Amino acid sequence: MPVPGVTMPVPGAMIPAPGDHGGDVGIVARRLGVDVSDILDLSVTLNPFAPDLRDVIREAVDMGYISRYPDACRARYMLAAEIGVDPNLLVLTNGGAEAIALTAKVVGKGYADPPEFSLYERHLPAVDQDGVRFRSNPCNPTGILAKADEQAGVWDEAFFQMATGSWTRGDYLSGAYVVGSLTKLFACPGLRIGYTIAPDEQSAEELRKLQPLWSFGGIESYVVAAVIERSDIAHWAKLLASARDDLAALLASKGFDVRAADAPWVLVGADKGFRERLARVGVLVRDCSNFGMLGIYRVSVCSDSGLERLEMALESLPAVQAGGR
């Protein structure tokens, strides 16, 4: 049964295998022969309550930020003040991916306990259990926040603000690196806005020396300064928790084994091929097999309209596809 408002894919088109990190909706859309806008992308976790940044970006263009080399100083000081950290410890990066890559190079060797985000070990010069531990908080993919006494040398707080309503747990104060990304919080992955909070000024300078010149763009610099004034992370966290409860309730009502924790997504158990079948009716979810979690899928929170669209998509699938792991 077609989902209203969604262009049906080319018959027989093959759904590409899931990428290592999500964010592959463009590839899926091209393979299906549909527009990206025809797919509700719940494989990536973006804040559905973030302010619309299109006017901010137009302002940046009108003010000439696109026609001159970037200067990220003001953005760095404003973000540092918002987080409550010394600006000399804050390094703005070309997305969270660069923050992870730079930090991994500085620490030299380390490891991540599975299941964990694969970019950590991908960028480490040496994967070594005697090195620095990398830990996402909340854990990606389980969605569980770290215990108060849990230790790591590098903390990834890409989803921390959405899970807690606070900017950081403050682990840099005890000698750890903290990496983050505003692209999730402000729902702008096309803009590359990340950062690392270093434990001391010398470590921050080591990170900066590894960056190419103008790593952080002018448009991004303007956006950071502008959206800080619009942020309301405590309120957003409450809205996200409510949206997560609604999402979990919907999936449970369809017979799925649902695991909801602290993050703005839920995990569901479903049979093999669930991602592909759901993609054919216009919804993309994250296959967690690359985390070593076979038969588990990550579904991100969405707006009310997105939830309605997901429900229609699920209803178009045979009931036998819900349930097992």
Question: Number of helix segments?
Answer: 12
Strand/helix succession: HEHHEHEHEEEHEHEHHHEEHEEEH
Shape: globular
- Based on secondary structure, the structural category is alpha/beta
Q: What order do the strands of the largest sheet run in, or round the barrel if closed? A: 2-8-7-6-5-3-4
Please identify which CATH superfamily of the largest domain we are dealing with: Type I PLP-dependent aspartate aminotransferase-like (Major domain)
Distance from N terminus to C terminus (CA atoms, Å) equals 25 Å
Major sheet details: 7 strands, mixed
Cα gyration radius (Å): 20 Å
CATH class value of the largest domain: Alpha Beta
Mean pLDDT: 91
**CATH-defined topology of the largest domain:** Aspartate Aminotransferase, domain 2
Q: Count up the domains.
A: 2
Residues in helix, %: 25-40%
Q: Examine the secondary-structure arrangement and name the CATH architecture of the largest domain.
A: 3-Layer(aba) Sandwich
Describe this structure in words.
- The chain has 325 residues and is α/β, with parallel strands linked by helices.
- It has 2 domains: 25-50 and 233-321, Aspartate Aminotransferase, domain 1; 54-228, Type I PLP-dependent aspartate aminotransferase-like (Major domain) (Aspartate Aminotransferase, domain 2, 3-Layer(aba) Sandwich).
- It is built from 12 helices and 13 strands.
- It has helices at 25-32, 54-62, 73-83, 95-107, 119-123, 160-164, 182-185, 201-210, 218-228, 233-253, 274-279, 304-315, and strands at residues 40-41, 90-93, 109-112, 126-127, 132-136, 154-156, 177-181, 194-197, 257-260, 265-269, 283-284, 286-287, 296-300.
- Strands 2-8-7-6-5-3-4 form a 7-stranded mixed sheet. It has a 4-stranded antiparallel sheet with strand order 9-10-13-12, with helices on one face.
- β9 (257-260) and β10 form a beta hairpin.
- α2 (54-62) packs across α9 and α3 (73-83) runs parallel beside α9 (218-228).
